[in-house]
Write a structure and sequence with these properties.
By secondary structure, the chain is an alpha+beta fold. The chain has one domain: Thrombin, subunit H (Beta Barrel), CATH 2.40.10.480. It is built from two helices and seven strands, in the order αβββββββα. The strands form two sheets. A four-stranded antiparallel sheet has the order 4-5-6-7, with no helix packed on it. A hairpin with a 2-residue loop joins strand 5 and strand 6. The protein starts with a helix and ends in a 6-residue tail after the last helix. The relative contact order is 0.18.
Length: 107
């Protein structure tokens, strides 16, 4: 699942979370949320997304909503999400760097 995440670019636009394949730009999945502005954060195997004062947890491989919290009593303002899980990106970068620096063996 980590490789899948590293290959996705997750964006929020017009009340929708969209995952694109980083290498081709092709859409992998799309999930409609409430509101217009969507804030997203990719952490471990989850995508956290906010819209219209509510927060959602989406499966990063399918976009399916795992859970949703209306954050009742807090209004409909913009929500920011703190923290991120950079381990996926760092692991992918390390793998690529090691592959590029490996000696080429010819017969």
């Amino acid at each position: 699942m980590y490789l899948m995440q590293a290959s996705l670019l997750v964006i929020g636009i017009a009340g929708t979370v969209i995952a694109l394949d980083r290498s081709t730009g092709q859409e992998v999945w799309r999930t409609k949320l409430k509101g217009d502005f969507v804030n997203v954060s990719l952490q471990s195997s989850d995508v956290y997304a906010t819209g219209s004062g509510e927060i959602y947890c989406l499966d990063s491989t399918t976009g399916q909503i795992r859970w949703h919290n209306e954050l009742k009593g807090l209004g409909r303002g913009l929500i920011t999400i703190a923290g991120s899980d950079n381990q996926v990106v760092l692991r992918e970068r390390k793998t690529r760097d090691e592959a590029q620096s490996a000696p080429i063996v010819t017969a």
